[in-house]
Amino acid sequence: MTRLSLLLTTALCAATLTAATAARAQVATAATSISIPAGALEPALLELGRQAGLVFAYDSALTRGRTTGGASGSLSAAEAVARVLAGTGLGFEFTGPRSVRVTAPLSEAEGVEGALQLGTIDVSGLSDRTEGTGLYTTEAPSVTATGLALTARETPQSVSVITNQRMIDQGSVTLTDVINQTPGISAAKAYGDARWSYTARGNAITNTQYDGLTQPNAWWAQEGSPDDMVIYDRVEVVRGATGLMDGPGSPSASVNLVRKRPLDVPRFTLEAVARDYGQGILTFDGTRPLNASGSIRGRLVAQGIAGDSYEEAKSRESALFYGAVDIDLAERTTLGLGFGHQRDRIDGYAWGGFWLGPDGERYEFDATDNPGLAWEYLTREQDVFYADLTHEFENGWDFRLAGRWVNGERTRLASLATWDDAETLSRSGSYAPGFQDSAALGATVSGAFELFGRSHEIAFGADWAEVSTGMTYPWRYSFVIEDPTRPDTWAHAKPSGGDEVTWDTRDRTAQWGGFVSGRFELADPLHLVAGARLAWYDHSDTSGNPQLGPKTKSGFRVDAEPIPYVGLVYDLNDKVSLYASYTEVFRPQSERSVDNTQLSPATGSNAEIGAKAEVFEGRVMGTLALFDTQLTGLPEQVDQSLCPLPDQACYRAAERVSTQGGEIEITGAVTERWNLMASYTYAYAKYAAGPNAGQRYAADSAPVHVAKLSTTYDLSGGLAGLTVGGAVRAQSGVYSDGIGLTTGAPFRIAQGGYAIFDLMARYAFGEQTALQVNVDNLFDRLYQTEVDSQWSGNFFGAPRTVSLTLRHMF
């Protein structure tokens, strides 16, 4: 789509309205031929945006049920907007040359210079969706960091939002696709095709939120159904520690996946994707009001994926269904219900990666090689239920109650290769069915109040989450790899299985807590953001061979762990803010020790200072941050020979790990046609105590330098309708040290620094149909996402891939 067809729906707080300046309210004076028929208001705004080249920002609740008398003739942009809104009771203001915010009545925003008042109306909750905006940023506030609805500038931490438009431009299908383009985060394939690990600021990301509800990580959880992005509107990322909202967490980042919700205007999209190695994706996404008043709205998303992989003997089949209904029970009360189902199968699945020689030699493997066997596989299936209830009180306070329930199953027939001795490389595998069930509930109340003549905001909340997992190993198999220099993908016949369980494991993790947070206006330019959480955590597990006697039981519990948070934000002016924040860290861990028990929690602190600025009339946000984290008890991988299972890594608790660094990010619309995201992160994590003092921590997966750039530009003139863009992600090297089996000498396996370049182009055939091409890894760079000297944990990134996408909206 071109920018003329895009509708921006974004949340804006009253403080933003009152800060609007006359300069931003200047209207375009050039006359344009306008023809808007009388009818429903929101479709009329869509059509006006197309004809006049305007981007509107408004709450859909303001337009719901309202009609317009239309507008026609040769009109300036301001005249056209005024005529369309005449008699609706709404006002508007220009926030940029072509950006228009539909406003509440002047009686509630008195003194906003340049805003036109056209009547009176009550203001309800504001929408924060990003789909349809065409932008790489959002002005909408987020509760991910503090539970308070704060904009990025008001939040005393680094915040990034991957909008729906960015996901479209980059052809993102999975969460890993999104992470690869997210500032400051690196992704590595770890221990299997379906198990990716993400790191930020030198530490592993351990928290994932879904619509603001934290999901505890199970130790094999990533072999559950994947997070395909087709059902999500955006991904919010808060870097640094987020224990105030997540409870147990890491000073890396928190990733919040926000679902698409039903809209109150009809919108239907069909999309077909073809990839050069033989995979196809077909998607339907439809939403519309389900009754005449628009008080009941529905959405349905269906997606199918089938075809080969770039790796030999590998293919994937996936079917996804998502449905959601929003019901306005009253003027200020909305009930949301949703259901998702996904089935997924990967044939040629690799549990382990490529192996080294007995003394660390590299063999000449390629990204198209498969370290698994052709008949090995992974199947996954899950059902997800969603529910939330929101209510806005007459005094402006908000209440939200939300829940998410997941029932998942998976079956794995897969193996990895390890050296039995200096001359024998064996592949050890197992048939391992399992399950993962989880639930999360959360309630929050938030609002503003006056104290000492100043306005403040406060939020209270409580939440609970639990995840239960289990796996059994009914039978195992083993093969000798005769030629270690080449993959043995087709070398072995599929074995016949038995029904005698040789290993069984069960895990249960529950966490719950309550928080309070506030934003206090200490002076006109100075705000204190502070809060605290009490966190409870309970973990138990059993594992062992039932044929040899009772299983081993272990676990631990933490009660009422306090997690304080404090931050300051100082506004130098209406465009630039300085900030500082401090919080403590309490991180339970999924990694297991050499006696097969879960490691005790790591503890520490996280501090950050920085500056944020809005430029180009607020369309671009820039962030500069410096950070310091101190953690004791983080997992350090030990030699595989010490572990109880041949296909499971094990760890010890490390002494204090210190991480210092900084980052810079610039994101937004430089011009009306040019979207940009650029970032650079430096994070050096090292052991600050113990036998490894001074050495890098997580050197195998956490690069010190990460830089990313992505951009698109809408061409004009004779090339109108054509959008071109590209991206680059670069990182410094990673390495892993080992000891040779024959020589006994130390060796290092390393992946040097590399840069991956992507290109995209899209042509819009009118306002409804577009054809897009993406070329990922343009120069076909061969690289490893992670290196491992101890076992088969070496995986290559994807080679050059060409995708063609046809999208039609109706």
TrEMBL record:
It holds the Pfam family STN. GO terms for molecular function: siderophore uptake transmembrane transporter activity; signaling receptor activity. Residues 54-105 form the Secretin/TonB short N-terminal domain. The keyword Signal applies. InterPro entries: Beta-barrel_TonB, Beta-barrel_TonB_sf, Plug_dom, Plug_dom_sf, Secretin/TonB_short_N, TonB-dep_rcpt-like, TonB_sidphr_rcpt. Belongs to the TonB-dependent receptor family. This is Secretin/TonB short N-terminal domain-containing protein. It comes from Rhodovulum sulfidophilum. The lineage of its organism: Bacteria, Pseudomonadati, Pseudomonadota, Alphaproteobacteria, Rhodobacterales.
